[in-house]
Amino acid sequence: MKIGILTSGGDCPGLNAVIRGAVLKGTEIYGRELVGFRDGWRGVVEGDIIPLGRKDIQGISKEGGTILGTSRTNPFEGTNGAETVRENMERLGVDSLIAIGGEGTLAAAKRLTDAGIKIVGVPKTVDNDLSGTDYTFGFDTATQIATDAMDRLRTTGDSHGRCMVAEVMGRHVGWIALHSGMAAGAHAILIPEQKTSMDQIVEWVTSVRDRGRAPLIVVAEGFTLDTMDDAHSERGLDAFGRPRLGGIGDMLAPEIEARTGLETRSTTLGHIQRGGTPSAYDRVLATRYGMAAVDSIVNERWGRMVSLQGTEITHVGFDEALGKLNTVPQSRYDEAAILFG
Ligand code: F6P
């Protein structure tokens, strides 16, 4: 019987390295046949597969994206859920699944596990917000891209004497902002876990300006001010009351400019953080995750997610990964805050 692999949810640098690690370990060490389901759970509920042999995964660990495609399809919406999945797996001769994804994917994997389907999960997200593992693959690459971008924003900001705001990914948690902000020497790091006042941001900006430097601020997309009244000034909103140009960075920039008199520009890095070549760290982590997922399947450890604990790859039950986010602890924020202003 075959092992099926799927990549689901938003893409992430390192997905192909997981696939390669799983295929090499599965075929070369265990003599198993692997197939890939196309476009995440869509391929599972529609029975859309491609073969995954050694030649299909040659040289892919350095490639961004996923050779399998991905989607945000939920296998429990518009189908018979576990029954549809079970029927398709039986028909295609697939006895177990490796589901590579974030919270949504793993929540679906848990429901399928509860229905008796044999699944192992692999934690994927650039945001690093999954519990049950020290790091998700993709986070290191996204952080490096954000750091490089801020290094560039700094030289143009310095040249013009402007305040530069970089908006990075992080819907619920601020790991990318925290790490890239520390690495690039940002003068303020704004994250969803820490509500901050506009007055405090203005204080940091003016103290940097008064030292003759151009302020650099990194803000995670999910950040909110402690009182939104301040930011909801007319300057940041369009005629419908929506942020005029997009996200929180675009809302903060005009406010900072108005309050400090310092010309301010905002750049949203967006999906650039998810595209392109994975870092060496992510390739290695992802490859190890892929191999460990196959080990779990062969050892019949279903309903588990492979996980990094320190430097060891182990696995945890889906429950440990789900239901609570891996947020930035207060101590990590306080440590970074020593560098602010
Ligand atoms: O969850 C990862 C993430 O990159 C978030 O930081 C971001 O808000 C979201 O995905 C973007 O998703 P989409 O690809 O659907 O625009």
From TrEMBL:
It comes from the Bacteria. Its main location: cytoplasm. Pathway: Carbohydrate degradation; glycolysis; D-glyceraldehyde 3-phosphate and glycerone phosphate from D-glucose: step 3/4. Keywords: ATP-binding, Cytoplasm, Glycolysis, Kinase, Magnesium, Metal-binding, Nucleotide-binding, Transferase. One of its GO terms (molecular function) is metal ion binding. The record marks G104 as: Important for substrate specificity. Gene3D superfamilies: 3.40.50.450, Phosphofructokinase domain (3.40.50.460). It catalyses: beta-D-fructose 6-phosphate + ATP = beta-D-fructose 1,6-bisphosphate + ADP + H(+). Its cofactor is Mg(2+). Mg(2+) binds at E103. Catalyzes the phosphorylation of D-fructose 6-phosphate to fructose 1,6-bisphosphate by ATP, the first committing step of glycolysis. This is ATP-dependent 6-phosphofructokinase. It comes from Rhodoglobus vestalii. The lineage of its organism: Bacteria, Bacillati, Actinomycetota, Actinomycetes, Micrococcales.
